[in-house]
Each structure stands twice: as structure tokens, then as C-alpha cells.
């Protein structure tokens, strides 16, 4: 397989995984993925990313701490805007389609708030992935650094996929940034960006069959001078 085909396959085969197998991922593999991702470009080589890689009891302990807050209805709210204050088209329909598609696959009827709460809570278990990555960034850096962070995340995802691993990028962890910082001993000067679940996809989980559609290139690109 050529290098182009390898990269293309990693990109096309990637999709969000919401249930993982209880199969360990060793530290060397995680470090290798992060080392590759660190080759991502960033403005004047700032490299804004900082990662807390959790496995075993450390991962479980963080999950327990967050779920204790979540199940009591306490939400801290993230320190930065991720979603718009008001949903409009075409983003509203895309968001609804993903939500309804997921609930249908896992057998959650419309309006079943208890089941929805339980499903959302699985975010904080990293969807049972053996490795959880918590991403932070120094608060003193500008918003433009989120662009660089996004490239880094993309490289993590592709490096993982090339090794037969799957991921789920989870902004949900930013909703409990205070608990995350307190539990991991993270300085208040660090912004909790989110998390990434990393592991081997459960091939029998119905939620892992959810594949989202993409807008065709002509729909989001204006070509000129070709």
C-alpha cells in the first residue's frame, strides 16, 4: 500500500467510537502517537498542547469524580464557547440527526430523559476506552491557538487509526473543568480543552455503526482560477 493510500484509508476509516473493548493500550504506543502528533504545525512553533494520559485506576478515578457531580445534576460550565448560543440551519439539522441516530441505535426512545442522561454520562467513562487523554492549554495563549490544537488532535486521531486504534474526541470534559483540574492537580492557569477516548472499537456495539454524512466539496468550496 502506498503512503497516499495509507493516509487516505486512515482518514476514511475514522469515525467516532462510543464503545470500546477492555483491551489495554500500552504506554509506548500512546507515547508514539503523541510524539507523531507533536509534529503538528503551530504559530511560531508555540506548541500549545498539554496532555494528561490516563489509564487503569487513574482513568477510573477521574471518571468517578466527574460522574459524582454529573449524577447530582451539577454542571460547572466550560471556560470557553464551543457551541453557538443559538442553533440555526444547517447546523441545527446536522446536530439533531446525529443525536436521533445515536439514540435509535442504542434503543433510547424519544423523550426518555433517564436513558439520555445515562448515555451522556458514558462520556465521562471515556466510553470504556482503556486510555483517556485530557487536553489543556495555557490560558494566556490567544484563541488562534485553538486552530493549532485542532491540527494536533487530528494528528492524534490519524496516528491512532494507522495503528488499528479508534478514538472519540470529547468536549464534554470541558464542562467539568474545575473537577478535572482539582482531581489531576492542574494549575488554574491551564484551560481544560476537552478529552479523547483511545482504544479498540467494540465491533459488536450498535452505536459504533453510526456514520455521519459529509457535505460534498462543491457545497463548502468556492473554486476560482482553475
Give a written overview of the molecule:
The chain has 226 residues and is of the alpha+beta class. A four-stranded antiparallel sheet has the order 1-2-4-3, sandwiched between helices. The protein has a single domain, classed as NADH Oxidase. Helix content is 40%, strand content 13%. The radius of gyration is 18 Å and the shape is globular. The mean pLDDT is 96. α1 packs across α6, α2 packs across α6 and α3 packs antiparallel against α7.
SSE arrangement, N to C: HHEHHHEHEHEH
* Count of strand segments: 4
Instruction: Please give the radius of gyration in angstroms.
Output: 18 Å
CATH first level = Alpha Beta
Q: What's the number of domains?
A: 1
Distance between the termini: 31 Å
The CATH topology annotation reads as NADH Oxidase
With strands numbered from the N-terminus, the spatial order across the biggest sheet is: 1-2-4-3
Question: From the helix content, strand content and strand pairing, which structural class follows?
Answer: alpha+beta
Helix content: 40-55%
Distinct helical segment count: 8
* CATH architecture designation: 3-Layer(aba) Sandwich
In percent, how much strand structure appears in the residues?
5-15%
Q: Overall pLDDT, averaged?
A: 96
Largest sheet: 4 strands, antiparallel
Amino acid at each position: 500500500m502506498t503512503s497516499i493510500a495509507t493516509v487516505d484509508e486512515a482518514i476514511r476509516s475514522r469515525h467516532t467510537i462510543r464503545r470500546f473493548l477492555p483491551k489495554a493500550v500500552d504506554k509506548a504506543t500512546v507515547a508514539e502517537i503523541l510524539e507523531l502528533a507533536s509534529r503538528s504545525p503551530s504559530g511560531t512553533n508555540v506548541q500549545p498542547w498539554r496532555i494528561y494520559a490516563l489509564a487503569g485506576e487513574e482513568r477510573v478515578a477521574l471518571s468517578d469524580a466527574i460522574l459524582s457531580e454529573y449524577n447530582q445534576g451539577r454542571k460547572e460550565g466550560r471556560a470557553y464557547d464551543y457551541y453557538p448560543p443559538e442553533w440555526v440551519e444547517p447546523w441545527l439539522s446536522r446536530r439533531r440527526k446525529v443525536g436521533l441516530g445515536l439514540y435509535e441505535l442504542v434503543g433510547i426512545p424519544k423523550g426518555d430523559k433517564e436513558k439520555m442522561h445515562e448515555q451522556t454520562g458514558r462520556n465521562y467513562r471515556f466510553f470504556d476506552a482503556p486510555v483517556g487523554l485530557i487536553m489543556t492549554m495555557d490560558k494566556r495563549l490567544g484563541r488562534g491557538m485553538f486552530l493549532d490544537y485542532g491540527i494536533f488532535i487530528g494528528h492524534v486521531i490519524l496516528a491512532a487509526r494507522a495503528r488499528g486504534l479508534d478514538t472519540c474526541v470529547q468536549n464534554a470534559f470541558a464542562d467539568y473543568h474545575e473537577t478535572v483540574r482539582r482531581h489531576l492537580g492542574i494549575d488554574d492557569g491551564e484551560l481544560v480543552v476537552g478529552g479523547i477516548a483511545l482504544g479498540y472499537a467494540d465491533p459488536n456495539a450498535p452505536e459504533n455503526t453510526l456514520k455521519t454524512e459529509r457535505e460534498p466539496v462543491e457545497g463548502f468550496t468556492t473554486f476560482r482560477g482553475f
